[in-house]
């Protein structure tokens, strides 16, 4: 490959079988090997990640997005989609579509005895607010125009008055 082709490949192509995976563990419920695939690419409005969830574990808390839409492609294994108060069986080959909004809080649970591997694809709408119904938390995320990031996590009861500390 020439230099131009190498640069294009670096900006446009990721092979999820060849990326370095990071262990994210929070006992006793959460354990996954994962990585964000779009980081460092030319992607501007799409995010993608790969997760391999350990048997009996979850990759993240039950949540929903106010702005971001998500799609999950189950690559290998079986598990459970916890969504809108229901438990739905999922397996390799399933494609799951989760629109934004409080109608579809969701969580993928590996309820099997083997690893569960899935690809997540999402819009990266900005700003974003994520709500966590089990814990009553909210997360606000704003990606700056210059690549900066603001994120805050709190509960409603910790909110400040609009005029707090203003002159």
UniProtKB/TrEMBL annotation:
A molecular function (GO) term: metal ion binding
Span of domain Cupin type-2: 52-121
Signal peptide range: none
Keywords: Metal-binding
Family annotation (InterPro entries): Cupin_2 (IPR013096), GPI/OXD (IPR051610), RmlC-like_jellyroll (IPR014710), RmlC_Cupin_sf (IPR011051)
Protein's recorded name: Uncharacterized conserved protein, cupin superfamily
Organism: Paraburkholderia phenazinium
Top-level taxonomy: Bacteria, Pseudomonadati, Pseudomonadota, Betaproteobacteria, Burkholderiales
């Amino acid at each position: 490959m020439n230099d131009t082709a190498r640069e294009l490949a670096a900006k446009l192509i990721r092979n999820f079988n060849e990326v370095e995976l990071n262990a994210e563990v929070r006992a006793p419920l959460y354990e996954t090997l994962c990585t964000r695939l779009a980081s460092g690419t030319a992607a501007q409005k799409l995010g993608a990640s790969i997760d391999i969830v350990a048997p009996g574990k979850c990759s993240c808390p039950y949540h929903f997005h106010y702005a971001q839409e998500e799609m999950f492609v189950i690559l290998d294994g079986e598990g459970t989609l916890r969504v809108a108060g229901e438990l739905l069986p999922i397996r390799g080959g399933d494609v799951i579509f989760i629109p934004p909004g409080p109608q579809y809080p969701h969580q993928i649970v590996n309820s099997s005895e083997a690893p569960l591997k899935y690809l997540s694809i999402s819009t990266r709408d900005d700003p974003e607010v994520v709500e966590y119904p089990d814990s009553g938390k909210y997360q606000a995320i704003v990606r700056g125009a210059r690549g900066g990031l603001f994120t805050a996590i709190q509960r409603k009861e910790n909110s400040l008055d609009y005029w707090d500390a203003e002159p």
